[in-house]
Write a structure and sequence with these properties.
The protein is an alpha+beta fold and 130 residues long. The chain is built from three helices and seven strands, in the order E-H-H-E-E-E-E-E-E-H. The chain has helices at residues 17-25, 27-30, 109-127, and strands at residues 4-12, 37-41, 44-49, 52-62, 66-72, 78-89, 96-105. The chain has a seven-stranded antiparallel beta sheet. Strand 5 (66-72) and strand 6 form a beta hairpin. The relative contact order is 0.24.
Length: 130
């Protein structure tokens, strides 16, 4: 199996960090822009897109700052890959941005980045940040 490579992509977002955090850390917030539906049971989140379903564990979070989801298998065992969303606030300008860390196969990195750009565009619309 090909190994995925880690990449980061940063998106400027016009929003308060507190509001943005609600949209990246809660099932209701995530289902407004990230997936068609998101359910959670404890630390486990189920992301639903059309007919596909993926499960992840909320492996770490820092309220108001970041969330990290680690993909899990059918037995809820942690997989090798994760995605993380971190809210960055410039100390001087107070500009807010969202730093996304994810993994993709070498040949799929650009497509994966494009997918994130589309998702974040949806997030900006939900936030009124366009």
């Amino acid at each position: 199996m090909d190994e995925k490579i880690k990449y980061e992509i940063e998106f400027p977002i016009t929003s308060s960090p507190q509001l943005l955090y609600q949209y990246i850390s809660t099932p209701s917030g995530l289902s407004e822009w990230f997936a068609d539906n998101v359910n959670s049971r404890g630390e486990f989140f189920t992301f639903i897109w059309n007919d596909s379903e993926e499960r992840a564990r909320l492996s770490s979070k820092k309220t108001g700052e970041k969330v990290k989801f680690r993909w899990v298998d059918d037995n809820n065992k942690d997989g090798e890959y994760f995605f993380e969303m971190k809210i960055l606030v410039d100390e001087i300008t107070k500009d807010v941005s969202l730093l996304v860390t994810d993994f993709a196969l070498q040949n799929d990195v650009e497509e994966s980045k494009q997918l994130w750009e589309n998702q974040i565009s949806d997030l900006k619309h939900v936030l009124g940040s366009v």
